[in-house]
Amino acid sequence: MKKTLNINEIKEYLPHRYPMLLVDRVLDWEDGKTITAIKNVTANEEFFNGHFPNKPVMPGVLMIEALAQTAALLSFLTMGQKPDEKTIVYFLGIDGARFKRPVEPGDQLKMEVEILKVARGIWKYKAKGTVDGQLALEGELMCTMRTTDDNAEK
């Protein structure tokens, strides 16, 4: 089975589009266990215009979002299904988030996510991002999947 995904294949699993799609390629995954993906950080990213004009740095919340998108990909790949237009992945929380080095234009953020636990529809992951082998950020993420029908008022 193929264990990589290009950007067009990633779009089949994630509803995000530019500028919020923050995963460029999946390098490898193991069903129910781990995934490794990358985000190529370029000077053309819209957020660098204001964060910060004289010293561009990728915002921490976007690095966390990139990890969460990578985690969602792992969940869908593990379940062996692609989401439909009614499927929404909600980011529930993060524990122990730590930022260790800035991520700047020209960097490649390598994201590694591991499933820790799945219980009652809540997925918990251990996640980290590195640049050139140096730890940039880490934390434990929690997500859940719902359909828009789950949210309909009765």
UniProtKB/TrEMBL annotation:
A Pfam family reported for this protein in Swiss-Prot or TrEMBL: FabA
Any single GO BP term: fatty acid biosynthetic process
GO CC annotation terms, alphabetical: cytoplasm; membrane
EC number, UniProt record: 4.2.1.59
Record localization: Cytoplasm
Assigned keywords, A-Z: Cytoplasm, Lipid A biosynthesis, Lipid biosynthesis, Lipid metabolism, Lyase
Annotated active site: 51
Catalytic reaction list: a (3R)-hydroxyacyl-[ACP] = a (2E)-enoyl-[ACP] + H2O
Record SUPFAM superfamilies: Thioesterase/thiol ester dehydrase-isomerase
Coiled-coil annotated spans: none
Stated name of the protein: 3-hydroxyacyl-[acyl-carrier-protein] dehydratase FabZ
Organism expressing this protein natively: Undibacterium jejuense
